[in-house]
Amino acid sequence: MTLLIDRDNRKVIKTKVSLEIHDQYIAGLDCSSKSIHIVLLSLGGKYVTQDSFVNISGDMDARMYDLMNQFKLRFEQKDNFYKHIKVAVVENPIYVQNVKATVGISQVIGAAKEFLNFYTSVFGIDNKSWKKDVVGNGNASKELIKEFALTKWKEMDQTWGQDFFDAACIAFWGVRRFGDGR
Questions:
Q1: Which of 14, 47, 78, 126 could connect to 153 by a Cys-Cys bridge, CB 3.0–4.6 Å?
Q2: Rounded Cα gap, residues 45 and 55, in angstroms
Q3: Please, which residues have CB within 8 angstroms of residue 76's CB and are 6 or more apart in sequence?
Q4: Tens of pLDDT along 129-178?
Q5: Beta strand 47-54 pairing with 35-42
């Protein structure tokens, strides 16, 4: 049994995870200016686990440092399954409500991609592309993405934050391109 903390909803999630040290995974990452949400799927598309790294500090530089430090520490843990990621698929930055937020998202995504490049192959994907390929609609609503994820992966819980559903679908896009089902 693995305990995961859903920092969006401030609760502990209990998830059964059966990991073999030699398994490989596809990671989907959904980043914001304040968080990184990651979901791992097997090469066949089965749900493995999820994690999030969050910092809501007002200071962008301090927030970036903390997010990347959390990320780095998790990857450096002994026998960590993150070291077995075959491909990490990261949603490309999008323009949001203001320039400061857009710059913040771009910095987090750039730092995450640069860090991941030390461990695995990294692929960026536009949000409209993964939504169209996975859900069938490039303008899919949050509700449609959540419904798809909950139907596809019974291990997911409807109370989890939207970023986990997005990250799972981003990972599934990667499974279709780089996993066993290509």
A1: 47
A2: 29
A3: none
A4: 999 999 999 999 999 999 999 999 999 999 999 999 999 999 999 999 99
A5: antiparallel
CA atoms within 13 A on the CB side of 182: 8
Predicted TM-score of the model (pTM): 0.84
Residue by residue, pLDDT tens for the chain (182 residues) are: 333 444 444 444 444 444 444 589 999 999 988 889 999 999 999 999 999 988 877 777 788 788 888 888 888 876 677 778 999 999 998 877 788 888 888 888 988 898 888 888 999 999 999 999 999 999 999 999 999 999 999 999 999 999 999 999 999 999 999 987 55
Ordered alpha helix ranges (H), 77-140: 99-116, 127-135
Q: For the chain, what's the residue count?
A: 182
Residue 101 phi/psi, 5-degree rounding, is -65, -40
Helix (H) or strand (E) holding 14: strand 11-15
> Rounded distance, CA 162 to CA 160, Å?
7
80: left (phi over 0), alpha (psi -120 to 50) or beta: beta
Q: How far apart are CA 141 and CA 146, in angstroms?
A: 9
The owner of tokens 């400061």 is 100
